[in-house]
Amino acid sequence: MSDKSPIVPGIHAVSGLLKRHPGKIERIVHLQQRHDHRIKGLLDLARKARVDCVGLGKAEFDQALGSANNEMAHQGVVAFIKPGRISNESDLDDLLEQVTESSLFLLLDGVTDPQNLGACLRSANGAGVSAVILPKDRSAPLNTAARKVASGAAELTPLIRVTNLARTIKHMQSYGIHVVGAAGEAEDDIDQADLTGPLALVMGSEDKGLRRLTREHCDTLVKIPMVGEVGSFNVSVATGICLFEILRQRRNR
């Protein structure tokens, strides 16, 4: 699969798209031999949303998916979706021109696991993130595995790849966006920081965290307080914790 895969696999992910954003779906393809209640419920949703559904035999279904068939657990159903809204640096400026007090961005500095990327996208969508930004190099592809974990968020939350993350941070700061980096060596816990106002949260890679140059460009560094023996969270878990601490603070203002 390419980085621009148009496929969202799986009953849960496709049902989520049908419920919230059916206009994103071009068509749904499913295995004819599946007749259980979950598939029937999904097809009912599709009919109500007036989304085209095509039932295929196994050979035709495999052919429709091509090489992607071996990369994902599709559960006998996939949605072919329309391209995402934005994907390059020039589109970021359009978002920055519309920054408000509630604007929130997520920057991923070297996240290379597609499943982590998908989980971060899902959390970002749930927290109302305007866009997820990551470097073009040394970052996970938005492949079928990422889309599966994202459960439709990859088609709903803009993903922007940039050439230089540190330069992008400086550019965002010029629009009044406060940049907060998550780092285990930070002095302040995340709940001690002011996370209201226009904000960009920066999360580091799975193994090394934030790169030095990225860390130096952040306005504030915070850490998640830990009381157990494990020294850190998986990056996607940490991203969810940080995003929803931001959301909590904004709701309690």
In short:
The protein has two domains: 7-81, Ribosomal protein L30/S12 (60s Ribosomal Protein L30, Chain: A); 89-251, SPOUT methyltransferase, trefoil knot domain (Alpha/beta knot, 3-Layer(aba) Sandwich).
The CATH C-level name of the largest domain is Alpha Beta
The CATH architecture of the largest domain would be 3-Layer(aba) Sandwich
Please bin the fraction of helical residues: 25-40%
Sheet with the most strands: spatial strand order = 7-6-5-10-8-11-9
Distance between the termini: 44 Å
When the domains are counted, the total is 2
The CATH H-level superfamily of the largest domain is SPOUT methyltransferase, trefoil knot domain
Shape: elongated
Task: Summarize the helices and strands and which ones pair or pack.
Layout (H helix, E strand, L loop, with lengths): L6 E3 L1 H10 L4 E7 L5 H13 L3 E4 L1 H8 L11 E5 L7 H8 L7 E6 L4 H13 L4 E5 L8 H7 L8 E4 L2 H9 L4 E5 L5 E2 L9 E6 L7 H6 L2 E4 L11 H17 L2
Parallel strand pairs: 2-3, 5-6, 5-10, 6-7, 8-10, 8-11, 9-11
Antiparallel strand pairs: 1-4, 2-4
